[in-house]
Amino acid sequence: MASKQFGKVAVLYGGTSAEREVSLKSGEAVLKGLHAAGIDAHGVDPKHQPVSSLHKHGFDQVFIALHGRGGEDGTMQGLLELLQLPYTGSGVLGSALAMDKVRTKQVWQSLGLPTAGYRVAIKDQCSPELLAAYLTELGGCVMVKPANEGSSIGMAKVDTADALTDAVAAAFAYDNEVLLEQYVVGKEYTVAILEGRALPMIRMETPNTFYDYQAKYQSDTTQYHCPCGLDEQFEAELGEIAVRAFDAVAASGWGRVDLMIDDAGEVFLLEVNTVPGMTEKSLVPMAAKAAGIGFPELTLRILQTAD
Fold first, then answer.
1. Name one GO biological process term (predicted).
2. How far apart are CA 39 and CA 297, in angstroms?
3. Which residue of the set 90, 95, 151, 152 is catalytic?
4. Adjacent-strand bridge partners of 9
C-alpha cells in the first residue's frame, strides 16, 4: 500500500560536501527504515549518478539525506524543483537561509528571538587587530564557526587573540564568511521538529571542550538525556520558541533547532538544521523514539512531507 502511494523513491545521500561520510550513514539508515515501512526506495549518490537522470530511472519522489553544501543549502532543492520531483523537507528559501548561520541570526534578531552576540569575519577583510577587537567585544571567549557548514566542521572555541587568528584562518578553508559567536557557558539542548510540532527535547553532555564532530559521531563518552531534565512547562515553552525559530527561516517539514541555556537560565538559539543526521547516534530518531515514533514510521512521516 505504502509503495503504491509513494511510488519509486530516491534517497539522495553521500554527495560531495565536507559531511559526505555522515550523509552516507544517514542515507543507509533511511533506506533500511523506508524498506521496513514497505517503500520502494533506492540509494542515489549524486557524486556518482547525476540527479538529472532520476526521471529516466523512474523515480517519483526524493528523500533528501544529503548534509551540507549541495544538499542542504537550497541548491539541490532548486534542481529538484526544476525537475518537478517532490522532495522531503524545506524548500529552496528555507534550506538556503537555515544553512547560513549569519543570516539566520539576523532574522532571529529582527523578530526578537534570543540568540548570542556575534560578529562576522570576512575573508581578506579582517586583520588580527580587528579580530582581537571582536574578541574583546564578545567577552573574551568565542565560538568560531564557518557560516555555511554543519556537523561542527571547522569550529573552534578560542579565548586569545592569537588563537582566534589561527581559528579564523582555518575556518576560511570552508567558507568566506566566519561567524564569531559569544561563548555561552551552560547546557546544550536540541529540539527536533516534525510536521510543525516539537518532539521531546534532548540534552547533550560531553567531556569535550564543546559538542564537536568527534562528540557527535565518534565518541562513546557523549551522553544524551531524554527526558532532558527541564520542568515540563519550561520545556513546552522552549518547544514553542524552537518552532518559531524554525518557521522564521522558512524551514518546513522536519528538522532540528539547537539551543543553549546558560547558568543564569537565559536561552540562546544556536542554529537550524533542515536535514539533520539520521544515523544510529542521531538526535531526531532519538527524540522521535521518546515520542513513541519508531524509526520506520519516522522515515515514512518525513517522506510524507515531500511536495
1. regulation of cell shape
2. 11
3. 151
4. 41, 61
**Residue 268 grid coordinates:** 540562546
2-88 CATH pick, 3.40.50.150, 3.60.20.40, 3.40.50.720, 3.40.50.20: 3.40.50.20
Q: Which residues of the chain form CATH 3.30.1490.20?
A: 118-182
Would you identify the CATH topology of the domain 118-182?
A: Dna Ligase; domain 1 (3.30.1490)
pLDDT band at 269 (very low <50, low <70, confident <90, very high): very high
pTM equals 0.90
282 is annotated as an active-site residue: yes
Cα–Cα distance measured from residue 7 to residue 154, given in angstroms and rounded to the nearest whole number: 39
Q: Pick one of 3.90.180.10, 3.60.15.10, 3.10.50.40, 3.30.470.20 as the CATH number of 98-114+185-303.
A: 3.30.470.20
Q: What is the pLDDT of residues 104-155, one digit of tens each?
A: 999 999 999 999 999 999 998 989 999 999 999 999 999 999 988 765 678 8
Binding residues for Mg(2+): 258, 271, 273
* 95 in catalytic set: no
Residue 20 near residue 69 (C-beta atoms within 8 A): no
